[in-house]
Give the backbone structure.
Amino acid sequence: MKNYETVFILNPVLSEDQAKDTVEKFVKLLTKAKATIVNTEKWGLKKMAYPIQNKSTGFYNLIEFATADNTLINTLETEYRRDESVMRFLTIALNKHAVIYNERRKKGEFNRTKKQAPRKEAA
């Protein structure tokens, strides 16, 4: 099985329930095709680097999954294109290093809120 990660941006005009339903639709599509959902993350409403469809913000979502079916990616991306609420999407295959990194990130090893070593005062 290969591991994949897909990030998509939903239209900011959607309500929270509509955005949640859209994410669930894609998760159901993956599980119906016998993909294993490893992780889903809702990154929330974020400002984009440049406007898309005259919108400067969007709901960012991530789904990490594993599948043996290579044609599933084409099916998923076709569904992204058909759904008018999806403004942009990107699906990538993860190598072994990315999978290890994602596992460590989920455990919280890279949190920025951890205590940092005290700085030396300049004299």
Q: What stands out?
A: The longest strand covers residues 36-52. DSSP finds three helices and four strands in the chain.
